[in-house]
Specification:
This protein is α+β, with helices and mostly antiparallel strands. 19% of the residues lie in helices and 33% in strands. The strands form 9 sheets. The chain has an 8-stranded mixed beta sheet, sandwiched between helices. Helix 2 crosses helix 14 and helix 8 crosses helix 9.
Length: 689
């Protein structure tokens, strides 16, 4: 396909008709493609893999992850009998038992049967007095949701209660009878990216149409976001005018203190993350920030009393200082101090930061493992003016089944839950390696498999990557991959390429817009290293990625086809000329660039796989997947890529599911089938050990 000048209007695209999501011609093409893929891949081994994956997804021993609200722990659970799931609750005392007693509040499968609609549960927000909740229901996994008020005592939706029709929405309780919400109902309510540009306040008992607009973003902005803090004595509402994916203007309205009742724009850089759960303002800039006589480095965490900041003070304390290999991923405010979630050379660390007369000090939490991913989350204190004491640690690793721990700030954490083993890890090793990029930068990657120190014969290997939006790829339990791939002697690799957040904001900024290709070049460097080290060969090496990672592996096909024996490309961006015209694509301009600006299309076309397809190449086989209900990344990307490759005689398998949205995870059976299809494709192309 020849690259065109300014092709974003689609006038030179012969496959534009495949963007018509429900169009009869496009749907007929999809059905024919699905049938051809099934005929090629759905053998006995596929069916065995599907059964094994579904057994893992539906296993009774899985951890029921919970959120605490008031006296109860809430969980959403799917199994073979309840494929769309149960929203339920229990108490902490019961949760500690091997078999907790659950009070089922809402059965999504029963709701679907009663209403004749394929709803998927998309979250719940309890009201201030915990008597009701806002339930978000998604049609087959779309980002757009319908929001309904639900009475917890009667286990039924509230007649005449709060109800928001289907839209990309977010809603929060201001008080028991007042909501703040933003909903992209129509063009007037929406930004060009398809998100809400208006925040409204809605009083119970009044018509939805009468809800007052209290905050506005511009049409060209990404969205108007907001957050409500109802913690006693610290009540405030914060608003974000999201200029793009990375930049925002932030406003606050305090309920208490000298600035109560005023809306104030915070004097902050546009690229910064902030939090304010209690009396402090915590912030982490994405670029070095010169404030007064001090510099807060990119990726550092700084703190100041919020009211003092509003009064003009700028004497921040530095809580966390990054280093070349040490980056802050997140933090949680507690009564004991700040729980810091740190990546140290892409390995999880948790520290408690406490304020002393000599500044902030870090103390490691006792009893936590090394060489694992550890995340931390608040577990109480939502109604406590002095913050909570309890946190939950989630600990996982490639070959380490996930565990859940409770810590109250004293002594060692208490293990609450332990997930079962999903695969036989005997002989499985984990090794961190480094490839060297073209500019000399060391690119870390994890290698997982048997006998890594003495690989012997080169083995089939999957290389996975993402490389965008400051998303960090860290070790997590490889349940399905372990069962379907590692147990058979194959190898899995995970690349920590630039564009992610593994080493702080600078790692992300190194592969952005005109330098986005660096993430793809890094990935190619890892592929070369896997072959040079004897782990695998080009013919036995496949790569896999989804969403932005789909763009990554699409570029492996068109820019580095000689490095791979197969490409597995899931829910991808691939047409970088039209991505801003398709669903949420406008919101990603800060990451990729704007194809309607000639100078930016000049570099965008160099990593637009759909436009780089050319005849006469030696492309490896590719398997492209998408979901028809994905309202984030348009399925047209995947459809057109597969069709364009097939038209030139290349081997391209395609599969599109109807349910699932962007994550593809609303139904365990469909998720198992999708995973099994991918591994069937790999067996057919790069073989098995």
């Amino acid at each position: 396909m020849t690259v065109q000048n300014n092709p974003s209007d689609g006038s030179n695209d012969p496959l534009l008709w495949l963007e018509d999501i429900e169009g009869p011609r496009a749907v007929a093409w999809v059905e024919a493609q699905n049938a051809a893929t099934d005929a090629a891949l759905c053998d006995d081994a596929y069916r065995a893999d599907c059964d094994a994956a579904l057994a893992i997804l539906n296993a009774d021993g899985r951890i029921p992850f919970v959120a605490r609200s008031g006296d109860h722990l809430y969980n959403f659970w799917k199994d073979a009998q309840h494929p769309r799931g149960l929203w339920r609750r229990t108490t902490l005392e019961s949760y500690r038992a091997d078999a907790p007693e659950w009070d089922v509040l809402l059965d999504i499968d029963a709701l679907n049967a009663a209403e004749g609609i394929s709803w998927a549960f998309a979250g719940a927000a309890r009201s201030p007095d915990k008597s009701t909740a806002l339930i978000s229901l998604s049609f087959n996994g779309t980002d757009a949701v319908e929001v309904r008020e639900f009475d917890i005592a009667t286990k039924s939706f509230v007649a005449g209660g709060f109800h928001l029709p289907k839209a990309k929405s977010r809603a929060s309780w201001l008080d028991q009878d007042t909501l703040l919400f933003g909903s992209a109902f129509d063009a007037e309510d929406s930004t060009e990216a398809g998100y809400s540009r208006l925040v409204r306040e809605w009083r119970r008992g009044t018509p939805l149409q009468s809800a007052e607009v209290v905050f506005t973003a511009e049409k060209q902005d990404v969205a108007a976001w907001f957050g409500v803090n109802r913690r006693p004595t610290h009540q405030r509402v914060m608003y974000w005018r999201a200029l793009d994916f990375m930049r925002s203007h932030v406003f606050v309205e305090q309920t208490h203190g000298p600035f109560a009742g005023q809306r104030i724009q915070l004097d902050l850089p546009d690229q910064i993350s902030i939090s304010a759960d209690a009396s402090d303002l915590l912030l982490s800039p994405k670029e070095d920030w010169q404030v007064g006589e001090m510099t807060i480095p990119a990726g550092a965490l700084a703190v100041i009393d919020f009211d003092r900041f509003l009064s003009g003070a700028r004497d921040f304390d530095i809580v966390f200082q990054p280093s070349p290999t040490r980056a802050l991923q997140s933090f949680v405010e507690t009564r004991h101090g700040l729980m810091l979630e740190i990546l140290d050379n892409v390995r999880g660390r948790i520290a408690l930061a406490t304020r002393t007369d000599d500044g902030w000090i870090e103390t490691e939490v006792p009893g936590l493992p090394d060489n694992a991913s550890i995340s931390v989350g608040n577990f109480d204190g939502e109604d406590d003016p002095d913050l909570g004491t309890d946190v939950l640690f989630t600990i996982t690793g490639f070959d380490r089944p996930t565990t859940l721990w409770l810590w109250d700030g004293r002594g060692a954490p208490e293990q609450l839950k332990h997930a079962p083993e999903s695969f036989n890890s005997d002989g499985i090793e984990v090794k961190q390696c480094h490839a060297v990029a073209a500019d000399g930068t060391k690119i870390p990657y994890f290698l997982i498999g048997k006998n890594l120190a003495d690989p012997g014969t080169a083995r089939p290997t999957i290389l996975y990557g993402y490389g965008g939006f400051e998303v960090s790829l860290t070790p997590s339990y490889l349940g399905i991959i372990g069962r379907l791939w590692l147990e058979h002697g194959n190898v899995y690799a995970l690349a920590n390429i630039r564009g992610g957040g593994e080493f702080g904001p600078g790692w992300h900024l190194a592969a952005l817009k005109e330098t986005k290709h660096i993430a793809h070049d890094d990935f190619a460097s890892v592929a070369r290293d896997l072959v040079a080290s004897g782990v695998t060969t080009t013919a036995k090496l496949a790569c896999h990625g989804g969403s932005n990672g789909g763009l990554l592996v699409g570029n492996m096909l068109t820019r580095y086809p000689e490095l791979f024996g197969a490409i597995w490309c899931s829910v991808p961006l691939l047409d970088m000329a039209r991505y801003t015209k398709l669903l949420a694509g406008q919101s990603w301009i800060a990451e990729y660039g704007d194809p309607d600006i000639a100078e930016e299309w000049t570099y965008l076309q160099k990593f637009s796989p759909y436009h780089l397809i050319a005849p006469g190449k030696t492309y490896p086989p590719i398997f492209v997947t998408t979901n028809r209900t994905d309202d984030r990344v348009h399925p047209g990307h995947a459809r057109k890529m597969a069709a364009a490759l097939q038209a030139l005689g290349y081997t391209a398998y395609f599969n599109e599911t109807v349910a699932g949205g962007h994550s593809g995870a609303v139904d365990n059976t469909k998720q198992a089938q999708s995973q099994a299809l991918g591994f069937a494709f790999l067996r057919k192309t790069i073989g098995a050990a």
